[in-house]
C-alpha cells in the first residue's frame, strides 16, 4: 500500500494545531514519558507523535528494546499501535503543543509556558522517568542554559515529583549528528531506568 503524502498547502493548514498527549489508560502505569519539543506539521496532520517518515524515533525505540515490534506511524497510528506503547507504560507529550514547520519558530515565552504545563502533567501522571528529546528546548523551557544531555541532577527532583529526568537526543531527521544507533543507545538508557528494558 502506498504511503500517504501531503501537499505543502495541506501541511500548512495544520500549522498551530495541537496533538493530544498519548498516555496509558486507566489501570495502566506510566513508566516512561517521552517529550518532544513540539509537533511538526506531519505529526499534526496525522495526529500522531513523531510521525514524519524521516523521523527516527520508532526505529530507535525498536533497536533499543523499548518496544518489541515495529511501529510505522507515517500514515497515522491505529489503536493497536497506541496500545503497544500504552501496555509497556510509555507515554508521549510535547513541551509546546502548537504545531510548526520547525522548532525554531517557537518563542522562549512559549517554551517556558510549555515547561510549566509539562511539570503539571508530570505531577498529575507521575511517570517513573521523563525523557525530553532536545537539549536546546530543555534549556530554554527551564531556564537552564548550561544543562547537559543525559540524566539531570537530583537537585531539581522537587520540580519533577520524584521522576528521574533525562535529556535525550532529538530524533528528527534534521538532527544530522544522530543516527538510529546513537539514538537507540540513549533511549535504551531511559528504558532501563524506567524498568522497561532489562
TrEMBL record:
CDD domains: UDG-F2_TDG_MUG (cd10028)
Keywords: DNA damage, DNA repair, Hydrolase
Gene3D superfamilies for the chain: Uracil-DNA glycosylase-like domain
Pfam families: UDG (PF03167)
Keyword Glycoprotein: no
SMART domains in the cross-refs: UDG (SM00986), UreE_C (SM00987)
Gene Ontology biological process: base-excision repair, AP site formation
MF (Gene Ontology): pyrimidine-specific mismatch base pair DNA N-glycosylase activity; uracil DNA N-glycosylase activity
TM stretches of this protein: none
Domain of life: Bacteria
Domain Uracil-DNA glycosylase-like: 23-188
PANTHER family membership: G/T AND G/U MISMATCH-SPECIFIC DNA GLYCOSYLASE, G_T MISMATCH-SPECIFIC THYMINE DNA GLYCOSYLASE
Protein name: Mismatch-specific DNA-glycosylase
Amino acid at each position: 500500500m502506498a504511503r500517504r503524502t501531503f501537499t505543502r498547502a495541506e501541511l500548512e493548514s495544520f500549522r498551530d494545531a495541537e496533538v493530544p498527549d498519548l498516555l496509558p489508560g486507566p489501570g495502566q502505569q506510566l513508566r516512561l514519558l517521552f517529550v518532544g519539543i513540539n509537533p511538526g506539521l506531519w505529526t499534526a496532520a496525522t495526529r500522531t507523535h513523531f510521525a514524519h517518515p524521516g523521523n527516527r524515533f520508532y526505529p530507535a525505540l525498536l533497536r533499543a528494546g523499548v518496544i518489541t515490534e515495529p511501529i510505522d506511524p507515517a500514515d497515522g497510528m491505529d489503536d493497536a499501535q497506541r496500545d503497544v506503547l500504552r501496555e509497556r507504560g510509555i507515554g508521549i507529550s510535547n513541551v509546546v503543543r502548537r504545531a510548526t514547520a520547525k522548532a525554531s519558530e517557537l518563542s522562549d515565552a512559549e517554551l517556558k509556558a510549555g515547561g510549566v504545563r509539562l511539570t503539571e502533567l508530570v505531577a498529575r501522571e507521575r511517570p517513573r522517568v521523563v525523557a525530553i528529546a532536545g537539549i536546546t528546548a530543555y534549556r530554554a523551557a527551564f531556564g537552564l542554559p548550561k544543562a547537559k544531555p543525559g540524566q539531570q541532577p537530583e537537585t531539581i527532583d522537587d520540580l519533577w515529583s520524584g521522576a528521574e529526568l533525562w535529556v535525550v537526543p532529538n530524533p528528527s531527521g534534521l538532527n544530522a549528528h544522530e543516527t538510529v544507533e546513537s539514538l537507540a543507545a540513549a533511549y535504551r538508557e531511559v528504558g532501563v531506568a524506567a524498568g522497561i528494558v532489562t
